[in-house]
Fold this sequence. Notes:
Elements: H1 3-9, H2 11-21, E1 32-35, H3 37-47, E2 54-57, H4 58-65, E3 75-78, H5 84-89, E4 97-100, H6 106-110, E5 113-116, H7 128-140, H8 146-154, H9 156-176, E6 182-186, H10 190-205, E7 210-213, H11 214-218, E8 229-234, H12 240-252, E9 256-261, H13 276-289
Parallel strand pairs: 1-2, 1-3, 3-4, 4-5, 6-7, 6-8, 8-9
Helix pairs in contact: 2-7, 2-8, 3-7, 3-10, 9-13, 10-13
Amino acid sequence: MDQALHEILEIPGRGRAFLESTRSFELPRMVPYIGMGSSYFAALAFRYMGIGIFPSLASEYFNYLKTGAKEKDAVILSQSGRSTEVLWCCDLFETFTAITNTAGSPLARRASAVIDIMAGEELNSSSKTYTNTLLALFRGFGMHTADALQHLSDNMERYQQRGEQLARDVFDLLRSRPVHGIYITGSGPNISTAMEAALILSESTKRSFCGLPMAQYDHGPKETAENSIVIQIVARGASYDRTLKLSESITRAGAHVFQVEDTGLPENFSVLTNILPFNFMAYYLAKMLGAGDTFKVGGKVTEVE
């Protein structure tokens, strides 16, 4: 089996291993949650669940938000524990908790406390590590995910089928006509899903995907609707009706609109499962496009000189 597909199929088991092997813990609130890429997106989801945390990109925090004096506490997230920008931030705080998949990493060695997400080896786009980071944050904020993870496990075949179909639909459009833009939109906590989906699809397929809030898309990018592709992440929350109305509007304007929705979970917990079709889509679309290796321009770990 292809390694990238194997990593996606491991998601339920790795999630169960984390929940079963990790004792309860409490994460701090009203402090920065600092990361890059998928780690940042995972923290951002909880900000839009109403959790009082302050997600920040590590690069921008270090360059623009540091105060000159050490702040009291933070949570720093990194799959590898080696990304340069997150390591820059370690000295900005008196204490910090590390959330990482690499317990012996430089980040973990410098942390006051370490939460090992236990996702196992991951060589391709973040899939297991993104889900397990979400699970760690849910647990740290006292939100129980056993039922949601069981739902994820029970529906893996459906997510795979949806992802493969999305890949075929998008591939056919890319092959048959000029496409002006490819957007993935979400609302509330699923803004993070949209951003994560765009990241993994871009790095896997070598095509540019833009992930952004549905409302922000409505504030201008919708003018590119004609001959564009828009994949809407739909959840039954405050933005549900607006999302459906926007779908109708941009379809009339010439957009090719697809939707991803998991009706079996409340909006907050849907972040665990709505990413799954995109994981599979990235795998299948990369194969169809002959994209080759996931990381060509750089490595999985970003190290800044």
